[in-house]
Amino acid sequence: MDDNRVLRRRVGDAEARRANRRWWDTDADDYQAEHGHFLGEVDFVWCPEGLHEADARLLGDLAGRRILELGCGAAAARWLATQGARPVALDLSAGMLRHAAQSADRSGVRVPLVQADALALPFADAAFDTVCTAFGAIPFVADSAAVMREAARVLRPGGRWVFSVTHPIRWVILLVLTYDAVKRSRKLGGLHGRRVGRVSHRYKIHA
Ligand SMILES: C[S@@+](CC[C@H](N)C(=O)[O-])C[C@H]1O[C@@H](n2cnc3c(N)ncnc32)[C@H](O)[C@@H]1O
């Protein structure tokens, strides 16, 4: 049997959620090792170009605001807390949330962490003043409009929804495959020390 065949078939929500969670649980340590320094321990960075919320102020006033961060990874919400907001950080992956908890231990800045799917938020309607995400959740679901609907549902009327995203991001998948292939072949002694792929942003690959 050829293990390298590419199949195209429909998957249901439950299967997609399992696969998505498994991917991020597996990748969590590598992701943080690769991007943790860039993201900072208590900071909010919107995108690979290095746009910081401290400069951009896309979220508006923060003091006292109930803010939900979707697909938080290691949780930029800690920075929001230092600005007087009342944030909640949510992610599908326990592996990513483990990094959020470790960062909280190191920095001493704690925010509530919730493991849930952005497609089915465990919050009441109008529970937040602001919902935000930096590259979280939206690129990794088939139906990005469903994330928009959930964000709208939990926002109070007039609330603000701010996100940075590329959708879909097939090119990352391609690069990840390349990266995995390089790692595998290195273990086998091939391609040793050769630079195979490099892109100049947060998903950069040092192969
Ligand atoms: C590219 S990382 C971004 C993490 C973080 N916001 C950052 O700036 O580094 C994408 C995050 O989205 C999370 N995620 C993916 N699908 C999700 C979903 N359906 N619901 C909630 N989180 C999800 C992943 O577990 C991962 O932590």
Topology diagram in text:
Blueprint: H1 13-39, H2 53-56, E1 66-69, H3 77-82, E2 86-91, H4 94-107, E3 113-115, E4 128-134, H5 144-154, E5 155-164, H6 170-187
Helix pairs in contact: 1-4
The site of S-adenosylmethionine has 21 residues, from helix 1.
Verbal overview:
It is built from six helices and five strands; from the N terminus they run H-H-E-H-E-H-E-E-H-E-H. With 207 residues, it is of the alpha/beta class. It folds into two domains: 13-164, 3-Layer(aba) Sandwich (Rossmann fold), CATH 3.40.50.150; 169-207, no CATH class. The model is unreliable at 185-207 (pLDDT under 50). The structure holds S-adenosylmethionine. S-adenosylmethionine is lined by residues 20, 24, 35, 39, 70-73, 91-93, 96, 117-119, 134-137, 140-141.
